[in-house]
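Worked example 2:
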Amino acid sequence: MLRKNLPHIILPDPPEKYKYINPIKSPNDGQQTPQRDRKTHAEHLIQSFDKAWQIARDDQVVYHTTRNGVYLEFRSSPGYELITKSLEDLRTKKVRLCNVRKRNLPKEVDKETKPVIYATVYISNDSREFFLKKLNDYAEKDHSTGTPKNLKVVNSISDILNASLIKSFWVSEEHLIPDESPQWCEVWLRVDSDTKEEIENVINIFDDLLAVQDVTSKPGYLLFPERVVKLVHVNGKQLETLTRYCDYIAEYRIAKDTTSFWVGMQTREQTEWVENLTERLQINKESLVSICLLDTGVNYGHPLLAPVFDQSDCHSCNVLWGVYDHDKHGTLMAGILVYGNLDEQLSSSGRVFINHKIESVKILPPKGENSIELWGLITSQGVSLPIIKAPERMRIYCMVTIHPPKKI
């Protein structure tokens, strides 16, 4: 039956019927595990595990480390998922998943460049049998249905290796890994519980290691569920040392630059950077795609916005309000819609391509606020004004202004 309250939805064709398909069983290359020869695959993984474990233990002997476990890396086959939820022991918390990464193999290795999933796992010295039991059960035991035990998780594993001291923990882009020159990096430490005692214990152990290795760090830390983040100033060799001597490493990331570098500049320096960016802009003036911002207006004369904005694309729901930004919010939003991450654009040296137009509609008054009864009408006007001016454009509307709910 046609819904009378939805006149804008028109279905001219009669409905078609299809049989129900269970989405869990639907084919999906990204979710399937490869077909394996059970005996051959089990032998390969057991040998790989034993070899990786021995290499990790030998490394501890050579460097006289006092770590209580090893880090191993599990890999998927190209184009297939790795079932990571079965790679840790949440009961004893002696086998923990540190991180999961997706990387494309080099073209000389895989011409189709299908992604490979990598998982780095910490295994305590007394939990070696956790994985060997899974592998042996896969090789020798069946469920009542006749399928091998641990079939999905074991078939999803292509190889098991000793974890690399940096790459197996580096989740940022690999070209950002520090070389001989130290850089600020985030060290994400694993904590087995969010209790104050556990967090302080991990932080104290790590701070002691930093002191011994003479590594500079920022005071304090950030706390996330099962993770503590410290900022350290390290080169590549120092990162390797931290991995080699610490049981709690989960991830390494390059520290994100803050805006303090830019806002702390003198006006003359800021102007030079802005001029450099605007000279590198390549704007598609013929584009029929537009992002329409419904906000506090835009100061389209701003040096970073002037090359992109056409004054005729700035509107207002009330001519008495004008089109300029009285609050700065609309102008700041416009900058995001044009450049995305402005820090990356300013820091780069290549061309910056702008393939869309920007339109602004001022929907908020310079003083006071709109009557709640007019919110719908003003929003509707804001949507219509740019369409009247340029009906041929394809639009994406952006309205990030919010207001606490009120009763009318």
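Residues 38-162 form a domain with the Alpha-Beta Plaits fold (CATH 3.30.70). Residues 38-63 form the longest helix (26 residues).
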